[in-house]
């Protein structure tokens, strides 16, 4: 009742808060479930990549064992070995398998002639840089599947490139498979997609001990390597990134990206040929709410809004009921006040009428004069009563009282009247008494004064005299000369006795030879002194 808007808003806030907590709990549970799914995916992809790399290293170990026992790794021997592996079926993700013979720089020409004889085609050893005769050179010798793309790599000296050389040196030292860091395969040509290689050294025993014979290696296009695992695990609504080493943009090898938002993330380290690599799986849910959360949120907001509306209607109805009770109590008080006010005014009016009758009876000699005088004065009271009724017995403009009393004389002779003064509001009782005085002055002027002759003039001017008083001056000019020995009439007694008594100020009434002059002092009371109820 005291805060009509606070209660509905509080109810809305309470239900909305409960809804928000429910949505938060649902989202937290979904996030945990999503994180668990991402962890499972990261584990599955990491395990699959590791398994495929182990398969590759197993092939390389087998090749190293075979080639170390052979006096010469010929093209036919290598093709028989690769054919037995059935690479198309069991070695998905790799870009084939190759052999790179280890020679010295002074042997390059002999090497090129020998490979040309065996294969029928051979690229010159590249890059063609200045080498010392004893420098180690490891050119790509054979690579299957034998395709146009693979032939781009033939003759490339992998030992001349630092990243490849570092991996080959590590493999030579450990006699185990070793993976390179992030590189671009030579066979990529104009499409420089990153990848990596795994090297397995092949040694041959001799009189001088073991000697490096070459490397069995596998090139991997990182994107193909990752996609082979993703397709196998049917990853659809998650993003997967594959890094060489730690998670950094410069280490990114491949990625499988969806178009949706970004959610929780899980990462897993794997070892491929003794090199640490990282798989990062990220959900694509983003910031969107789950369907259950959306349903809960919409339902909660609907319930909160409906509850707020109902509470608002109830509080509004309570306010209206309270206002109605206040209104009825006020109306009852107004009716009581009106009854008292009406009783008071009727008594005052009857007292005025009785006084007028008594004075009229003493001043008339026959019944007709008595009736005429009484009729005019009661009509004057009636005219002022009409004005008070129109204003609902509130304040009445002084000018309107004057115009109402002079209306019978000013309708055809407006030029005979002059009214001037500010806007003044009179209390009901004061308006009645003032109107009666104007009526008597107008009646006298119409019979004996300025209103009875053409060219004469009645001037009525008023002005404030202090805060609570207005001075009204009645002046007649141009009328018949006023006799100084005239008898005292009823109008003079009515104005000087009844009106002066009601207005609580004396009336200055003078009968000058040029015309009647009258000065009245009318109170200007505050509305609270006479209004039934003050308007706020």
Automatic annotation (TrEMBL):
Q: What are its E.C. numbers?
A: 2.7.13.3
Which SMART domains does this chain map to?
A: CHASE, HWE_HK
What is one process in the GO biological process aspect for this record? signal transduction
**Where is this gene product found?**
Membrane
Q: Which domain of life is it from?
A: Bacteria
Molecular function terms, GO-annotated = ATP binding; protein histidine kinase activity
**Catalyzes what?**
ATP + protein L-histidine = ADP + protein N-phospho-L-histidine
GO cellular component assignments: membrane
Key word S-adenosyl-L-methionine present in the record?
Answer: no
Keyword annotations of the record: ATP-binding, Kinase, Membrane, Nucleotide-binding, Phosphoprotein, Transferase, Transmembrane, Transmembrane helix
Its main localization is membrane
* Domain CHASE span(s) in chain numbering: 69-229
Which Pfam family would be a valid example here? HWE_HK
Keyword Kinase included in the entry's annotation: yes
Which residues span the membrane?
none
* InterPro entries according to UniProt: CHASE_dom, CHASE_sf, HATPase_C_sf, Sig_transdc_His_kinase_HWE
Q: Which PANTHER family match?
A: HISTIDINE KINASE, TWO-COMPONENT SYSTEM SENSOR PROTEIN
Protein name per UniProt: histidine kinase
Q: Which organism is it from?
A: Erythrobacter litoralis (strain HTCC2594)
